[in-house]
Design goal:
It contains five helices and nine strands. It has 175 residues and is an alpha/beta fold. The radius of gyration is 15 Å and the shape is globular. Helices cover 25% and strands 25% of the residues. It starts with 15 loop residues before the first strand and ends with a helix. The strands form three sheets. A five-stranded mixed sheet has the order 5-4-3-8-9. A two-stranded antiparallel sheet has the order 1-2. Strands 6-7 form a two-stranded antiparallel ribbon.
Length: 175
């Protein structure tokens, strides 16, 4: 299990993510899009929900973690969430493809945390090298709710293959 170095009440450290913003052109599966960067500074004064997955297209992430967030976007927005994003160590093109297959559109941002730079600052990484399938160091499975960059909720899975405290229902009950 990851040992978070951040707790409720803390301000998150500055970080920069890479992502491919959704555009109508991306509805064509052969389109790749153009990666751009977004900083945590963009979230000042906003209520942000981040959920993190060890890997796009992996079983728990693809079937159990991300789809329920998409299904409950309206409920999250009704509870005051301004920005919803999934964070992963995958590259921005993989995350863009995954988000298109899942149908995120412009409802959920798919943010790449290159080399787990930001999640390492939070103590929220997991080394999956021992699985022998090339995963290496990844973001662990967690959910964070930020309000003006301050942590209001943190749910970190003790087993990154499971979805409990990082799932949308746990987050909704905490809002």
């Amino acid at each position: 299990m990851a040992t978070p170095s951040i707790k409720v009440g803390d301000e998150v450290p500055q970080g920069t993510f890479v992502y491919v913003p959704f555009t109508p052109e991306l509805e064509d599966s052969s389109a790749c899009g153009i990666p751009t960067k977004i900083s945590t500074d963009a979230w000042k004064g906003k209520k942000v929900l981040l959920f993190a997955v060890p890997g796009a297209f992996t079983p728990s992430c693809h079937a159990n973690h991300a789809p329920p967030y998409l299904a409950k976007v309206d409920e999250l927005k009704a509870k005051g969430i301004d920005v919803i994003a999934v964070v992963s160590a995958n590259d921005p093109f993989v995350l863009s493809g995954w988000s298109r297959i899942l149908g995120f559109g412009d409802k959920i941002l798919a943010l790449s945390d290159p080399d787990t730079q930001w999640t390492s600052k939070l103590g929220l990484t997991v080394d999956l090298s021992g699985l022998g399938i090339g995963l290496g160091k990844r973001t662990t499975r967690f959910a964070l709710v930020l309000d003006d960059l301050k942590v209001k909720y943190i749910g970190v899975e003790s087993d990154p293959s499971q979805v409990t405290v990082s799932g949308v229902d746990a987050v909704l009950s905490a809002l």
